[in-house]
Amino acid sequence: MQKWHQTLHKNTGLSPYVWVVFFILPFYFIFSSSSTWHIVAGFAMIVAFFVCYVLSFVSKGWPVYVWTSVLIAISITMTVVFGYVYFALFLAFFIGNLKSKAGFFTLYTIHLVTTLATINYGIVTKNSWLLSQFPFVLISLIAVILLPVNTYNRNKRDQLQGQLEDANKRISDLVKMEERHRIARDLHDTLGQKLSLIGLKSDLAGKLVRKNPEQALQELSEVRQTARTALKEVREMVTSMRGMRFEDEIFRVGQILKAAQIEFTLEGNAKLVQTSLLNENVLGMCLKEAVTNVVRHSGATACTVSIELTRAELVIRVKDNGVGPPVPEGYARGNGLRGMKERLEFVNGCLDIQSDNGTVLTMKVPNVIKQPLEEANS
């Protein structure tokens, strides 16, 4: 058995039930009638409309169109007999939530034509209730024209957005799977072959250690060199996996600052062509943390990132016009800035913070690229 919240329509939620509050209004029109028969008939139609309205939302397939047809018939009767045209608004809202394109346009056309016809009939027959509220009748007619189209388009847009998110998720999963396969291939090509070579040469050196010591030493030397080469290739592979280009990070932090309505200024060239990828990774992570601090804590309206490259070092400054921390030493003890300091120290860099009319955070790293041969022999 379904619980009450399971009967809620996925796209509308509580909306149809909130609209039920407006069912109070037709009772005024009904009880203003002098005929007891009219009162009884009107009360029965209100109850029937309420039941069919709820059933139309919780039903699926062809019963939806059956209940909608009953709703249209009740709406026509209420307009002709009591001058109450506002049931047409309930129908307009419901028709806009139909998923079938053919069903939507069919019921939309029928509902619009019948509403126009009944309003015109009320005007021709000079229905006093209808004429007394004519401005509201016109507003209702406009809503009958626009509300279903607006609701239908909104639901379609939400549906397309959901499909796009699902597609992006599938693409992301495929990219991850392909990345795993690539990593497996790279590990096989780098470690697999070289470890096999190390194993073979180690076995050979063990056999030659008594028969031919010089040849055994040569084999051990090649084992050592192969191990160093494998280590270098693994480092390069890991670095490429974690690669974060500083130029890309500059673009991302610019978007973050723009979203936070903080003016962003870049001084210098963000493309670090003579900097190692490891240093770019460290600087990119530190820059992201620095800009996050600006957005969250500074209250700044402007932020400037300056890049200064010399033969000896690379200097990145992040300056904002915010309130700044009261004590730079205390500010530096935060987890984010402590992590920045540790990352920079890992590449022999340093971090400096100055607080005067804002905050200036300076990151320095040596402008040195370790050559492949030197790295292999280290």
Automatic annotation (TrEMBL):
Gene Ontology CC terms: membrane
Keyword terms, alphabetized: Kinase, Membrane, Transferase, Transmembrane, Transmembrane helix, Two-component regulatory system
Reaction catalysis annotation: ATP + protein L-histidine = ADP + protein N-phospho-L-histidine
CDD domains for the chain: HATPase_UhpB-NarQ-NarX-like
EC number: 2.7.13.3
The keyword DNA damage belongs to this UniProt entry's keyword annotation: no
Residue stretches making up the Histidine kinase/HSP90-like ATPase domain: 278-369
Transmembrane segments annotated in the record for this chain: 14-31, 38-58, 64-95, 102-123, 129-149
A Pfam family reported for this protein in Swiss-Prot or TrEMBL: DesK_N
Protein name as annotated: histidine kinase
Organism in which the protein naturally occurs: Cohnella faecalis
